[in-house]
Design a protein that fits this description.
Order of helices and strands: HHHHHHHHH
Shape: elongated
Number of helices: 9
Helix content: 25-40%
Keywords: Membrane, Transmembrane, Transmembrane helix
Organism: Sphingopyxis lindanitolerans
Number of strands: 0
Distance between the termini: 96 Å
Protein name: LSU ribosomal protein L21p
Length: 191
């Protein structure tokens, strides 16, 4: 008892710890004693519908039905022949310079467009369907060409600018495999 009188602080702390430990072990409710909350069964409501943003509701122009062509106008009757007009003197025709072929013209050799980063089999098929089959064609695209082709790519719109397709094609059209790989990584196939 002399020990208890000298160390009464330690005895009180030990007693408090023992009480807390016993309460924690035996005083808590066990999971099986806890009753699950009883809520009335709710009637099923209308299933949730996904909100359709306005962007999704709009369809690309190529999927919209075409407007019916207007009926051809009936030509007006020709006026009666008037006095014969003097025939103009023939002038020497200035030969026109041959026009450069458009960038969408089919080349003699088709390239593997899937070597371009960002173009997979589906996008390559779309481009081939639009007449784009070579790196030279893609490298020659202007901003107007990109806008025209991009509008026809459906789910792939924006991919040309986002993946720098024209710049990639410029490297591959020149045959600069080392420059391409330095900027865009491994080619992933034979040029």
């Amino acid at each position: 008892m002399a020990w208890l009188q000298e160390n009464w602080v330690i005895a009180v702390v030990g007693l408090v710890v023992a009480i807390v430990l016993l309460w924690w072990l035996f005083g808590r409710n066990r999971p099986e004693e806890i009753a699950p909350p009883v809520a009335p069964a709710a009637e099923p409501k209308k299933p949730l519908e996904a909100a359709k943003p306005e962007i999704v509701a709009a369809e690309p122009a190529r999927f919209k039905p075409r407007d019916p062509a207007p009926a051809p106008a009936v030509p007006a009757p020709a006026p009666p022949p008037a006095a014969a007009a003097p025939e103009p003197e023939p002038t020497a025709a200035i030969p026109a310079e041959p026009a450069a072929p458009p960038p969408a013209a089919k080349p003699a050799k088709a390239d593997n467009l899937q070597l371009l980063k960002g173009i997979g089999p589906k996008l390559a098929g779309l481009l081939n369907g639009l007449g784009v089959t070579s790196f030279q064609q893609v490298a020659a695209w202007t901003a107007a060409d990109i806008a025209t082709i991009d509008a026809q790519l459906g789910a792939f719109q924006g991919r040309i600018a986002r993946d720098n397709i024209v710049d990639q094609a410029t490297y591959l059209a020149r045959g600069d495999k080392a420059g391409f790989e330095a900027k865009y990584g491994a080619l992933g196939g034979e040029l």
